[in-house]
Amino acid sequence: MLKKELINQSIDYILKHLDDDISVDDVANHFCYSKYYFCRSFKAVTGESVYEFIKRLKLDQSASEMKREKTKSITNIGMDYGYSSSNYSTAFQKHHNISPTEFRKSTEVTGMENPFYPAGLSDFETFDAYNSRISLQEFPDFLVIYERMIGNYIELKDNWFKFLDKYKNYMKADTLMIERFYDDPAITSLNRCLCDICLTTEDTCKLDNVTMLKGGRFAAYRYEGRIEDIFCTVQGIFSVWMPQSGYYMDGRCGLNIYRKIDKENGYVIMDVCIPIK
Q1: Given 135, 194, 212, 246, which residue has the most CB atoms within 10 angstroms?
Q2: Residues 99 and 125: beta-carbon distance below 8 Å
């Protein structure tokens, strides 16, 4: 069975080429894997077949783009992910149980249910309120130790504490704790959300699970508050600020950079960093 790290590399390759007409054969051939062996290993690690994974990512990412870029036509969004107009609508409806048109209407909201408080509704702030806490920043590339999580983002807190305990000997005074997030948990099935938990490290690190997070220009929102309220804050940024900002995501993944964590009280200071162009 292929090592988990090799499967992670194939996932990275798929993500990089998601807007191409990528196939299972393309991925297996790129890494010189036997197609049968690769497919069996991929499903064992991720719980999905390669084909299912690629199709789901296309439909989830296109829905996220529809939410952020409200003036871009549904047809053009579908075409960006390799679909004709009619095929995209059919595939989207089958996957999300809602038509693309109705989905876009459903994103015009002023609040959202918080999975940490299922009985309540959290209201979004205004564009100006979000904008006042956002600064444009240039980040370097970050060399990091990472572990990839596929599952519910609600489990991130516990996974973080286990991760920090596991790699405590690699932490220094200037070590940054970073999440690289791929999915919108309001769109992707909760048990399928993809996230990398990371610690910055030096190029002398000999661990296998080391990768580079791409830097560049980001819109950074400074969040200070409870861990349980991060979800709705991020949803508000993407639902309210992003569509009105005049900026677009450029294909890189978003980053959450933690500046302070109060484990006992569940309080954090962090920068929610959106890659922009």
Answers
A1: 194
A2: no
CB atoms within 10 A of CB 183: 21
The pLDDT, as a whole number, for residue 165 is 94
Sequence-distant (≥ 6) Cβ neighbours of residue 162 within 8 angstroms:
none
pTM of this structure: 0.90
C-alpha span between 207 and 78 (Å, rounded): 40
pLDDT at position 156: 85
DSSP per position, 35-47? HHHHHHHHHHHHS
**pLDDT given for residue 191 in this prediction:** 87
| Tokens, residue 176 | 């940054």
Give the C-alpha separation, 68 to 104, whole Å: 10
| CA atoms of 200 and 177, how far apart (whole Å) | 7
Distance CA 24, CA 31 (A): 11
pLDDT at 257 over 90: yes
Beta strands in 159-266 (DSSP E): 177-181, 193-200, 210-213, 216-226, 254-262
Residue 1 has pLDDT above 60, yes or no: no
Question: Could you say which architecture CATH assigns to the domain 134-275?
Answer: Alpha-Beta Barrel (3.20)
Among the residues of 167-245, which ranges form H helices?
230-236, 242-245
> Does residue 170 contact residue 145 with C-beta atoms inside 8 Å?
yes
Q: What is the DSSP letter of 241?
A: I
Structure tokens given for 145: 């130790």
pLDDT at 57: 94
Question: pLDDT tens digit string along 42-90?
Answer: 999 999 999 999 999 999 999 999 999 999 999 999 999 989 888 999 9
The burial of 133, by beta-carbon neighbours within 10 Å (0-12 exposed, 13-18 middle, 19 or more buried), is given as middle
* Domains of the chain by residue range: 4-106, 134-275
